[in-house]
Amino acid sequence: MAFRPRHLLGIEHLSPEDIHSVLDLAEQYVELNRRTVKKTDALAGMTQINMFFENSTRTQSSFELAGKRLGADVMNMSMQTSSVKKGETLIDTALTLNAMHPDLLVVRHGSSGAVDLLAQKVECAVINAGDGKHEHPTQALLDALTIRRAKGRLHRLTVAICGDVAHSRVARSNLILLGKMENRVRLIAPPTLMPSGVAEFGCEVYDDMRAGLKDADVVMMLRLQRERMDGGFIPSEREYFHRYGLDAEKLAFAKDDAIVMHPGPMNRGVEIDGTIADDINRSVIQEQVEMGVAVRMAVMDLLARNLRAERGRALTGETYV
Ligand code: NCD
Fold first, then answer.
1. Which of 61, 115, 119, 301 has a Cα at 20 to 30 A from 246?
2. Does residue 34 sit in the same domain as residue 106?
3. How many domains, the chain?
Protein backbone atom coordinates (compact mmCIF):
# COMPACT_ATOMS: atom_id res chain seq x y z
CA MET A 1 0.00 0.00 0.00
CA ALA A 2 1.28 3.49 -0.87
CA PHE A 3 1.46 6.03 1.97
CA ARG A 4 4.91 6.61 3.32
CA PRO A 5 4.61 9.84 5.35
CA ARG A 6 6.01 9.86 8.88
CA HIS A 7 3.42 12.38 10.11
CA LEU A 8 0.06 13.69 8.94
CA LEU A 9 0.56 17.44 9.15
CA GLY A 10 -1.50 18.58 6.19
CA ILE A 11 -3.13 17.54 2.94
CA GLU A 12 -0.55 19.55 1.02
CA HIS A 13 2.06 16.82 1.66
CA LEU A 14 -0.12 13.97 0.35
CA SER A 15 -0.31 12.56 -3.19
CA PRO A 16 -3.61 11.43 -4.77
CA GLU A 17 -2.39 7.81 -4.20
CA ASP A 18 -1.82 8.54 -0.50
CA ILE A 19 -5.35 9.92 -0.27
CA HIS A 20 -6.90 6.86 -1.93
CA SER A 21 -4.83 4.55 0.32
CA VAL A 22 -6.29 6.20 3.42
CA LEU A 23 -9.85 6.12 2.04
CA ASP A 24 -9.61 2.47 0.90
CA LEU A 25 -8.39 1.33 4.30
CA ALA A 26 -11.02 3.52 6.00
CA GLU A 27 -13.73 1.62 4.08
CA GLN A 28 -12.66 -1.53 5.92
CA TYR A 29 -12.90 0.30 9.23
CA VAL A 30 -16.41 1.54 8.36
CA GLU A 31 -17.43 -2.13 8.14
CA LEU A 32 -15.66 -3.02 11.39
CA ASN A 33 -17.28 -0.10 13.23
CA ARG A 34 -20.75 -1.36 12.27
CA ARG A 35 -20.14 -4.72 13.95
CA THR A 36 -20.86 -5.48 17.57
CA VAL A 37 -17.22 -6.27 18.28
CA LYS A 38 -15.24 -3.30 16.95
CA LYS A 39 -11.71 -4.04 18.10
CA THR A 40 -8.53 -4.82 16.20
CA ASP A 41 -4.94 -5.01 17.39
CA ALA A 42 -3.35 -2.74 14.75
CA LEU A 43 -2.04 -0.42 17.49
CA ALA A 44 -1.69 -3.02 20.27
CA GLY A 45 1.10 -2.11 22.66
CA MET A 46 1.31 1.43 21.29
CA THR A 47 0.63 4.65 23.18
CA GLN A 48 -1.44 7.48 21.72
CA ILE A 49 -1.52 10.87 23.44
CA ASN A 50 -4.17 13.45 22.49
CA MET A 51 -3.11 17.05 23.17
CA PHE A 52 -5.91 19.51 22.46
CA PHE A 53 -4.87 23.09 23.19
CA GLU A 54 -8.20 24.23 21.70
CA ASN A 55 -11.61 22.94 22.73
CA SER A 56 -13.04 20.11 20.71
CA THR A 57 -15.95 17.73 21.09
CA ARG A 58 -16.19 15.57 18.02
CA THR A 59 -12.59 15.54 16.82
CA GLN A 60 -11.12 14.61 20.20
CA SER A 61 -13.71 11.93 20.95
CA SER A 62 -13.33 10.57 17.42
CA PHE A 63 -9.55 10.22 17.82
CA GLU A 64 -9.98 8.67 21.25
CA LEU A 65 -12.45 6.09 20.01
CA ALA A 66 -10.32 5.38 16.92
CA GLY A 67 -7.24 4.69 19.05
CA LYS A 68 -9.14 2.47 21.48
CA ARG A 69 -10.71 0.44 18.68
CA LEU A 70 -7.22 -0.13 17.25
CA GLY A 71 -6.05 -1.43 20.62
CA ALA A 72 -3.77 1.49 21.61
CA ASP A 73 -3.38 2.86 25.13
CA VAL A 74 -4.94 6.29 24.76
CA MET A 75 -4.28 9.24 27.05
CA ASN A 76 -6.06 12.58 26.82
CA MET A 77 -3.88 15.37 28.16
CA SER A 78 -6.00 18.08 29.67
CA MET A 79 -4.26 21.13 28.26
CA GLN A 80 -6.57 23.51 30.14
CA THR A 81 -5.05 22.41 33.45
CA SER A 82 -1.56 21.40 32.28
CA SER A 83 1.69 23.25 32.90
CA VAL A 84 1.12 25.16 29.67
CA LYS A 85 -1.14 27.36 31.75
CA LYS A 86 1.80 27.94 34.08
CA GLY A 87 3.90 29.25 31.20
CA GLU A 88 5.57 26.12 29.88
CA THR A 89 6.24 26.41 26.16
CA LEU A 90 4.80 24.11 23.56
CA ILE A 91 8.26 22.71 22.93
CA ASP A 92 8.90 21.94 26.61
CA THR A 93 5.57 20.15 26.79
CA ALA A 94 6.49 18.19 23.67
CA LEU A 95 9.88 17.20 25.04
CA THR A 96 8.33 16.09 28.34
CA LEU A 97 5.83 13.93 26.48
CA ASN A 98 8.51 12.62 24.15
CA ALA A 99 10.41 11.29 27.15
CA MET A 100 7.38 9.11 27.93
CA HIS A 101 7.83 7.36 24.56
CA PRO A 102 4.45 7.81 22.93
CA ASP A 103 4.01 6.34 19.45
CA LEU A 104 1.33 8.72 18.20
CA LEU A 105 0.68 12.31 19.19
CA VAL A 106 -2.59 13.89 18.09
CA VAL A 107 -2.34 17.67 18.40
CA ARG A 108 -4.76 20.57 18.03
CA HIS A 109 -3.39 24.07 18.51
CA GLY A 110 -4.62 27.62 17.94
CA SER A 111 -1.52 28.73 16.03
CA SER A 112 -0.91 27.86 12.39
CA GLY A 113 2.35 25.92 12.11
CA ALA A 114 2.53 24.89 15.79
CA VAL A 115 1.95 21.22 15.02
CA ASP A 116 4.70 21.20 12.35
CA LEU A 117 7.10 22.72 14.86
CA LEU A 118 6.22 20.12 17.47
CA ALA A 119 6.67 17.28 14.98
CA GLN A 120 10.29 18.34 14.50
CA LYS A 121 11.00 17.86 18.23
CA VAL A 122 9.58 14.40 18.88
CA GLU A 123 10.38 10.86 17.77
CA CYS A 124 6.83 9.61 17.29
CA ALA A 125 4.26 10.10 14.55
CA VAL A 126 2.34 13.37 14.82
CA ILE A 127 -1.18 13.99 13.52
CA ASN A 128 -2.47 17.51 13.04
CA ALA A 129 -5.99 17.70 14.47
CA GLY A 130 -6.28 21.36 13.43
CA ASP A 131 -3.72 24.17 13.65
CA GLY A 132 -5.08 27.71 13.64
CA LYS A 133 -6.36 28.70 10.21
CA HIS A 134 -3.89 26.39 8.48
CA GLU A 135 -4.93 22.73 8.06
CA HIS A 136 -7.25 20.06 9.45
CA PRO A 137 -6.23 17.08 7.32
CA THR A 138 -8.38 14.34 8.90
CA GLN A 139 -11.46 16.52 8.41
CA ALA A 140 -10.73 16.83 4.68
CA LEU A 141 -10.10 13.07 4.45
CA LEU A 142 -13.36 12.20 6.21
CA ASP A 143 -15.19 14.67 3.99
CA ALA A 144 -13.58 13.02 0.95
CA LEU A 145 -14.71 9.57 2.10
CA THR A 146 -18.24 10.86 2.69
CA ILE A 147 -18.33 12.41 -0.80
CA ARG A 148 -16.84 9.31 -2.45
CA ARG A 149 -19.46 7.07 -0.84
CA ALA A 150 -22.39 9.40 -1.61
CA LYS A 151 -21.39 10.29 -5.18
CA GLY A 152 -19.53 7.12 -6.17
CA ARG A 153 -16.43 9.11 -7.13
CA LEU A 154 -14.06 11.81 -5.91
CA HIS A 155 -13.25 13.58 -9.17
CA ARG A 156 -15.03 15.85 -11.65
CA LEU A 157 -17.52 17.07 -9.05
CA THR A 158 -18.55 20.67 -8.42
CA VAL A 159 -18.11 21.39 -4.73
CA ALA A 160 -19.29 24.67 -3.19
CA ILE A 161 -17.62 25.59 0.12
CA CYS A 162 -19.66 28.31 1.74
CA GLY A 163 -19.33 30.62 4.73
CA ASP A 164 -16.42 31.83 6.82
CA VAL A 165 -13.68 30.67 4.45
CA ALA A 166 -11.19 33.23 5.78
CA HIS A 167 -10.90 31.63 9.22
CA SER A 168 -11.40 28.01 8.25
CA ARG A 169 -8.71 25.33 8.26
CA VAL A 170 -11.45 22.93 7.11
CA ALA A 171 -11.98 25.00 3.95
CA ARG A 172 -8.23 25.16 3.30
CA SER A 173 -7.61 21.41 3.68
CA ASN A 174 -10.68 20.59 1.58
CA LEU A 175 -9.67 23.04 -1.12
CA ILE A 176 -6.25 21.41 -1.41
CA LEU A 177 -7.60 17.84 -1.36
CA LEU A 178 -10.44 18.44 -3.82
CA GLY A 179 -8.05 20.28 -6.15
CA LYS A 180 -5.58 17.36 -6.09
CA MET A 181 -8.44 15.04 -7.11
CA GLU A 182 -9.44 17.27 -10.03
CA ASN A 183 -12.72 18.66 -8.83
CA ARG A 184 -14.18 22.08 -9.48
CA VAL A 185 -14.16 24.01 -6.21
CA ARG A 186 -16.19 27.16 -5.63
CA LEU A 187 -15.73 29.31 -2.57
CA ILE A 188 -18.74 31.38 -1.52
CA ALA A 189 -18.41 34.06 1.17
CA PRO A 190 -19.01 37.73 1.83
CA PRO A 191 -15.91 39.71 0.76
CA THR A 192 -14.96 40.24 4.44
CA LEU A 193 -14.79 36.46 5.00
CA MET A 194 -12.95 35.54 1.79
CA PRO A 195 -9.14 35.32 2.12
CA SER A 196 -7.19 37.35 -0.41
CA GLY A 197 -5.20 35.51 -3.07
CA VAL A 198 -7.35 32.40 -2.79
CA ALA A 199 -7.97 32.21 -6.56
CA GLU A 200 -4.39 31.05 -7.01
CA PHE A 201 -5.53 27.68 -5.61
CA GLY A 202 -7.44 27.27 -8.88
CA CYS A 203 -10.90 27.77 -7.41
CA GLU A 204 -13.79 30.02 -8.38
CA VAL A 205 -14.78 32.80 -6.00
CA TYR A 206 -18.35 34.01 -5.43
CA ASP A 207 -20.06 36.43 -3.08
CA ASP A 208 -23.52 35.62 -4.40
CA MET A 209 -24.68 32.35 -2.88
CA ARG A 210 -27.26 31.45 -5.50
CA ALA A 211 -24.76 31.91 -8.34
CA GLY A 212 -22.14 29.91 -6.45
CA LEU A 213 -24.51 27.03 -5.69
CA LYS A 214 -25.74 26.70 -9.28
CA ASP A 215 -25.49 23.03 -10.33
CA ALA A 216 -23.23 22.07 -7.41
CA ASP A 217 -22.94 18.35 -6.55
CA VAL A 218 -21.77 19.03 -3.00
CA VAL A 219 -22.60 21.94 -0.68
CA MET A 220 -20.22 22.26 2.25
CA MET A 221 -21.27 24.77 4.92
CA LEU A 222 -18.90 26.40 7.41
CA ARG A 223 -19.42 27.89 10.86
CA LEU A 224 -18.71 31.56 11.56
CA GLN A 225 -15.46 31.18 13.56
CA ARG A 226 -16.08 34.04 15.96
CA GLU A 227 -13.16 33.06 18.17
CA ARG A 228 -10.83 33.95 15.29
CA MET A 229 -12.52 37.26 14.43
CA ASP A 230 -11.30 40.49 15.94
CA GLY A 231 -13.96 42.85 14.68
CA GLY A 232 -17.22 43.17 12.81
CA PHE A 233 -16.95 40.81 9.87
CA ILE A 234 -20.72 40.54 9.42
CA PRO A 235 -23.50 43.10 9.99
CA SER A 236 -25.71 40.72 12.06
CA GLU A 237 -26.47 36.99 12.25
CA ARG A 238 -29.95 37.67 10.89
CA GLU A 239 -28.57 39.48 7.86
CA TYR A 240 -25.92 36.79 7.40
CA PHE A 241 -28.52 34.02 7.38
CA HIS A 242 -30.59 35.95 4.88
CA ARG A 243 -27.67 36.21 2.43
CA TYR A 244 -25.49 33.18 3.19
CA GLY A 245 -27.54 30.79 5.32
CA LEU A 246 -28.39 27.54 3.54
CA ASP A 247 -32.16 27.13 3.27
CA ALA A 248 -34.42 25.24 0.85
CA GLU A 249 -34.75 28.20 -1.51
CA LYS A 250 -30.98 28.62 -1.98
CA LEU A 251 -30.30 24.87 -2.03
CA ALA A 252 -32.72 24.58 -4.99
CA PHE A 253 -30.00 26.21 -7.14
CA ALA A 254 -27.71 23.20 -6.62
CA LYS A 255 -28.28 19.88 -8.42
CA ASP A 256 -31.39 17.95 -7.36
CA ASP A 257 -29.22 15.23 -5.81
CA ALA A 258 -26.68 17.59 -4.21
CA ILE A 259 -25.53 16.56 -0.75
CA VAL A 260 -25.21 18.96 2.19
CA MET A 261 -22.19 18.77 4.51
CA HIS A 262 -21.04 20.56 7.68
CA PRO A 263 -17.97 19.74 9.81
CA GLY A 264 -19.72 20.81 13.02
CA PRO A 265 -20.27 22.40 15.40
CA MET A 266 -23.34 23.79 13.62
CA ASN A 267 -25.11 27.04 14.33
CA ARG A 268 -28.68 26.43 13.23
CA GLY A 269 -30.33 29.54 11.89
CA VAL A 270 -26.96 31.26 11.28
CA GLU A 271 -25.20 29.37 8.47
CA ILE A 272 -27.75 26.58 8.01
CA ASP A 273 -31.49 26.08 8.41
CA GLY A 274 -32.21 23.31 10.93
CA THR A 275 -34.63 21.50 8.61
CA ILE A 276 -31.95 21.20 5.89
CA ALA A 277 -29.41 19.90 8.40
CA ASP A 278 -31.89 17.23 9.52
CA ASP A 279 -33.15 16.26 6.04
CA ILE A 280 -31.88 12.70 5.62
CA ASN A 281 -32.38 12.91 1.86
CA ARG A 282 -29.90 15.78 1.52
CA SER A 283 -27.77 16.05 4.64
CA VAL A 284 -24.80 13.70 5.17
CA ILE A 285 -23.71 15.44 8.38
CA GLN A 286 -24.15 12.31 10.53
CA GLU A 287 -22.27 10.19 7.94
CA GLN A 288 -19.39 12.66 8.23
CA VAL A 289 -19.17 11.89 11.96
CA GLU A 290 -19.24 8.14 11.27
CA MET A 291 -16.56 8.44 8.55
CA GLY A 292 -14.46 10.48 10.97
CA VAL A 293 -13.79 7.53 13.25
CA ALA A 294 -13.00 5.21 10.32
CA VAL A 295 -10.67 7.70 8.62
CA ARG A 296 -8.78 8.36 11.86
CA MET A 297 -8.38 4.62 12.39
CA ALA A 298 -6.98 4.30 8.86
CA VAL A 299 -4.57 7.22 9.31
CA MET A 300 -3.25 5.94 12.64
CA ASP A 301 -2.95 2.38 11.31
CA LEU A 302 -0.92 3.58 8.28
CA LEU A 303 1.33 5.84 10.36
CA ALA A 304 1.91 3.01 12.85
CA ARG A 305 2.96 0.69 10.01
CA ASN A 306 5.47 3.30 8.80
CA LEU A 307 6.74 3.80 12.33
CA ARG A 308 7.27 0.06 12.81
CA ALA A 309 9.05 -0.20 9.47
CA GLU A 310 11.27 2.77 10.33
CA ARG A 311 12.17 1.32 13.72
CA GLY A 312 12.82 -2.06 12.10
CA ARG A 313 15.23 -0.47 9.65
CA ALA A 314 16.94 1.46 12.44
CA LEU A 315 17.54 -1.82 14.29
CA THR A 316 19.11 -3.43 11.21
CA GLY A 317 21.20 -0.30 10.52
CA GLU A 318 19.44 0.70 7.29
CA THR A 319 18.66 4.34 6.62
CA TYR A 320 15.11 5.53 6.22
CA VAL A 321 14.18 6.73 2.73
C1 NCD B 1 -13.86 22.38 12.76
C2 NCD B 1 -12.56 22.85 13.37
O3 NCD B 1 -12.33 22.71 14.56
O4 NCD B 1 -11.77 23.37 12.60
N5 NCD B 1 -14.59 21.50 13.55
C6 NCD B 1 -14.25 20.20 13.68
O7 NCD B 1 -13.12 19.81 13.59
N8 NCD B 1 -15.26 19.35 13.88
C9 NCD B 1 -14.69 23.49 12.28
C10 NCD B 1 -15.22 24.46 13.27
O11 NCD B 1 -14.79 24.55 14.41
O12 NCD B 1 -16.09 25.23 12.86
1. 61
2. yes
3. 2
The answer to whether the CB of 251 is under 6 A from ligand 1 is no
Q: Do residues 290 and 57 lie in contact, with contact meaning Cβ atoms separated by under 8 Å? A: no
Q: Which atom of ligand 1 lies closest to the CA of 108? A: 3
* pTM of the predicted protein model: 0.95
Question: 275 and 150 share a domain?
Answer: yes
Per-residue model confidence (pLDDT) at position 77: 87
Cβ neighbours, 10 Å, residue 253: 17
Q: Which atom of ligand 1 has the smallest separation from the CA of 56?
A: 3
Residue 41's domain comprises 7-135+289-308
For a pLDDT cut of 90, what percent of the chain falls above it?
A: 81
CB under 8 Å to 19, separation ≥6 — which residues? Answer: 11, 141, 144, 177, 180, 181
For ligand 1, the distance from its centroid to the CA atom of residue 109, given in whole angstroms, is 12
Which CATH number do you get for residue 215?
Answer: 3.40.50.1370
Atom of ligand 1 nearest to the CA of 129: 7
Q: At 106, phi and psi to the nearest 5?
A: -105, 120
Is residue 286 predicted with pLDDT exceeding 80?
yes
